Amino acid sequence: MSTRAPSVWHWVSAGLVVSLAGVGYDAVRAHPSRTLPEALRPYAASFAQGSHKQPSAQPARPPAVQAAVLLQLRDCSGNLRMLHLLHRGPTRARLRLAVMWYVGPLADSTAIRSALPAWTSMIPLRPAPRHVVQQFAALGHTSTPALLVLDLEGRVRLATQSPRSSREVAGLRRIIEGLTWIEEL
Fold first, then answer.
1. Does residue 19 form part of some domain?
2. Helix pair 36-51, 130-138: axis angle to 10 deg
3. Using one digit for the tens of pLDDT, what is the confidence trace for 99-141?
4. Is 70 helix (H, G, I), strand (E, B) or coil?
5. Do residues 113 and 125 lie in contact, with contact meaning Cβ atoms separated by under 8 Å?
């Protein structure tokens, strides 16, 4: 039996394997979310943390369903009717637009922000991650603007394109009101 000491190459290759394993572990930890609810979660979580800062004299607000919009600069020329639906009457208190994702160059963000309604100024406007665009496409939404609404448990309840007619606007308003109706106990 011969006991040969490991050569330098054995140690170098062992070090390389350990390094690659570390890189692989970091890549898995940093892996972006792959579903729309996972992509929306960081924005919904920041809202939940901010909602704890309400003065105690005010009654607690009912929980709000979370929503997101996928848009691009060319949509801002009048194709954002659904944003007005999200900010009407009781829907405004029951639904929270957590993020607006946009498709296009980073430079478009300034023009998009200036074309949006004033009430959206506090809503994050972020470039759409590739997997978000792919998930919308998998649901059949290959054009913008598109709306995503989650229920209180964080499941996708609605994904739709912007309405094209006044009849569709009225129908979408009813759907959104139905999704945001929360039974008070």
1. no
2. 120
3. 999 999 999 999 999 989 899 999 999 999 999 999 999 988 8
4. strand
5. yes
Q: Which structural domain range is residue 157 located in?
A: 36-49+62-180
Task: Give the distance, in angstroms, between the CA of residue 85 and the centroid of all CA atoms in the same chain.
Answer: 18
Question: What residue has token string 């972020």?
Answer: 126
| Preceding amide of 145 cis, omega within 30 | yes
CATH number of the domain bearing residue 172 = 3.40.30.10
In this structure, is residue 7 part of a structural domain? no
Residue 152 half-sphere exposure, CB side, CA atoms within 13 Å?
A: 9
Task: Out of 31-40, 96-105, 160-169, give the one with best mean pLDDT.
Answer: 96-105
* Phi, psi dihedrals of residue 65, rounded to the nearest 5°: -75, 150
**Residue that is written with structure tokens 């939940």 in the block:** 48
Residue 28: pLDDT band (50, 70, 90) is very low
- Tell me how many domains the chain contains: 1
pTM: 0.71
Specify if 131 maps to a domain. Answer: yes
C-beta separation of 85 from 172 below 8 A: yes
Start-to-end CA span in the chain (Å): 79
Q: 129 lies in a domain?
A: yes
Phi, then psi, of 151 in degrees rounded to 5 = -90, -175
Nearest-5° Cα angle at 32, 27 to 41: 140
For the segment 151-179, the average pLDDT, to the nearest whole number, is 86
Give 2 or 7, the one with higher predicted confidence: 7
